[in-house]
Fold this protein.
Amino acid sequence: MLSVEEEKMFEGQPRGFPFGDFDIADVMLPDGDTMGIPSDDEEEEELIETETGLGHIVVVDNIPQVGAEKYDKLTKILSKIFSASGTIAENGLNHPVDQSTGLSKGFAFVEYENHDQARTARMALDGYQLDKNHKFIAILFDDLERLNDVPDEYQEPPQKPYEPATDLYNWMGDRRGRDQFAVRYGDETEVLFNDVAQQNPQKVKDRSFWTEAPFIQWSPQGTYLATVHMQGVAIWGGDDFRRIRRFSHKNAQRLAFSECEKFVYIYTDIPPEGRQPPRFALSVYEVTTGRKLRVFEGSQEDHAVGAARRPDGGMAYPAFKWSSSTDDGHAFLAVMRKNAISIYQAPEMTLLDKKSIKADGIQSFEWSPADPILCAYQEEQGNLPARVVLIRSPDREEVRAKNLFSVADVRMAWHPQGDYLAVRVEKWTKTKKSTTTNLELFSMREKNIPVDMLELPNKSEKISGLAWEPHGNRFALIHGSDPQRPSVSLYSMKDPKSGALGGVHHIHTVHNRSVSSLHWSPKGRFLLLAGLKQNGKLEWWDTHDEVSVVGAGEHLMATEVAWDPSGRYVVTSVTAVNQMENGYQVWSFCGQPLYKVSKDRFFGFVWRPRPECLLSKEKQKEISKNLKKYSKRFEEEDEKLLAAVDSELLAEREKMLSEWNSWKESRVEWAEKQKEGIKQLLGSKWVAPEEEYIVQEVEVSAIVDVREQKVESQ
């Protein structure tokens, strides 16, 4: 379901666009352009050419062979297992019996309602462990027929011409060290370099109708650009942004990469039909091979728990969340159920220890961005207190827990490098008529994970925002009793005087600020206070030694803020939630406005992420210490590059002027003939154009500057 703001963004589109039940015929696409995704018609043609018409039948082998006394019971068990993955057609389960022995033959034919259900069932049933001795082998009937047609003698396949692999990281070799970003507006999608020197972005790739979704998405390390289509998801990369791979998923709406970029899931919210509850479909793929690892389908009610429950009872996105990757390349996908958390390990996509983790009253959870550690919140039940618990995967060990009492609400905020965890706890007062707010701060890198508590001096104030400093020990808070003019405070988890870790130390507070969100530079030190969806007031802080305001600005009706990966630039944007002033403004790290771009129906601005630096922390510190020594050389190179760019620009303008003059000279004779023809047609009424106006030369003087200088007499 779309929010009111999202509905405004798609005003004028077909009803239900982009994700609901809308008539696809109302959406205009360019003629002959398939966006690299096969249409439904093309897929049907492929099925006609390659299938026998029995593509909705699955053959399941390695079933126990039983006699007549156990046959009916086993068949009922099989029917229950097979129907969990799709609807079995009437009389669609054939569990044959060997008439000579009276035993079942050990395999079954399962007929589903359609081909999609059969494919989903095959994925779910293949490798299913029925008991200690029987693991199912599932295959589509059409695949079985094709395997039977394989010739006995080996036939060498035809050799394919060599195609050089595209360089997925070429953008990082930009000589001027510029960052890329993508913008989505109208029907257009563009990838550009942030070219501050030219006061204008440099276009890298643009395409109309590149995606059918209102958003664009980079993979976590910036390797791929993902686009969403009715048939599935495609990923693009390289210097020419060619299609790298596509993943089939009907009516795709959302996607999420794992942090290591090895896995991706595609999600569809299926609206209710009649009295049926809303359903969902989620497909998990391996990115490099395109192999489908698992399909999750079912009622949204099963996972609509706590914070993952929408007001209408459906499942909020994202209910399924990826963990960070482990050292051996594994990732975990977790989702809540009633009183439990289910964690699946990729690439096997099997349930850890074959069972969910019991968590009575679970309401929300978040993964650490750096480690496979999950923080879960369990609400109070009867006389049992509420709990915040940290669980490590894959051993499912509970590494830390904190009991809480009289809890009204809990919100979690991880440090970007996973060094700390802040839990904002809203507690009921004794009268149960109001609440107070405090923070429980977990130091994840310290022995036994100590927990510090922070209470505001004025207990009537509420904490409405928290942001951790990347690569640091500090965090900033928005708090106050007036949400329109709150205060902003800076705290540290390290003693500013002694430098010792431990405790919570107040650094600075300012009052009466027009701010709704806090945004740290990805390199730390600089903090941006933004009044988003308010008056657009912006204020930059330098927190290096003493907190000081280094810049201020305003971007009226701004809705989003995004720092570039290097921390050199920050962008504020106004999306199509507002009908006016759509576009984005680029600022320096200290609040200097650089350039502004306006776009109608602007949907989003996304910086291209960069992979983590491969240099050691010691080497990075050495470079920072000797920055002046390196900067002179790079400044000279930058000047040469800018001079070369200016020369190219000047040469391009001269070329355009030369082409214009050549064309103009080629049309002189034609213009004279036109003039003579008009003169003959008009006869005595013809007046030469130069006689219709008078040319006068006028000299105008203007005072540019006035200065007073005292002149002493000799």
Remarks:
- The CA atoms of residues 110 and 299 lie 23 Å apart.
- Helices lie at 4-9, 40-50, 68-83, 115-125, 141-148, 617-625, 627-666, 668-682.
- The first strand starts at residue 57 and ends at 61.
- The mean pLDDT is 86.
